[in-house]
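User: I'm new to structure prediction. If I give you an amino acid sequence, what do you actually give back? Let's try with this one:
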Amino acid sequence: MSLWKLLNGRWGSGAGETDEIRIDASTNSLQTIEYEHHEIHSGSSFVCVFQDTVTDTDNRTIVTFKTPSGTKYIHIVASVSATAISVARIREAPTYTDDAGVTLAIHNRNRVGTPTGSIVLDTSQSPDTAGSATSYVHDTANPPAEDGTIIAEIPLGSATSPVKSVGGTARGQQEWVLKPATLYSFEIKSIDASDNTHWIELDWYEHSDRH
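Assistant: Good question. You get back a string of structure tokens that encode the predicted 3D arrangement of the chain. For your 211 residues, that looks like this:
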């Protein structure tokens, strides 16, 4: 590494490439925290939560949103739980009835000042509106069909079962980078007729690749 690169906050990253040493805007420290933690500080990290109690076999609790077109991508982790036997799934590009469902609030995880809104689209409104998701419950008319591509699936047990993430046991295994301009559904489906409280939490950050 040359002295010039060092004095100007740059280092070699292989094959002759360099990049800037980045400072976290909140703490004014070198950015050595996990990247998703940094995204909270930068105001690009979001969460939405939906819970509902269903009462019969095949009842579903669903959260959907549509990703916008463009090059800012959604990096998401889905956490789920249920109090009776169920299955949780992530579906890519399911069929749905536009302008159905109920608007679900999304919150910026940086609450300082006036938090910016998410870029994902709520399809329960006409036209589709950025900044919210869409929720469906078992008795909602015209929920998304059980089609599309199932990209993740996990069984859920009983009231004593821990919260599970749909994907793996660490964020690197759990995280999905979603396709632009595509509808996604995050659902829990009851397997038996027991009263069953479903809980879905979606945690993501919005990021454009650096080239």
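You can read the tokens as a compact description of the fold. Here is one thing that stands out. The helical segments are 3-7, 35-41, 171-174.
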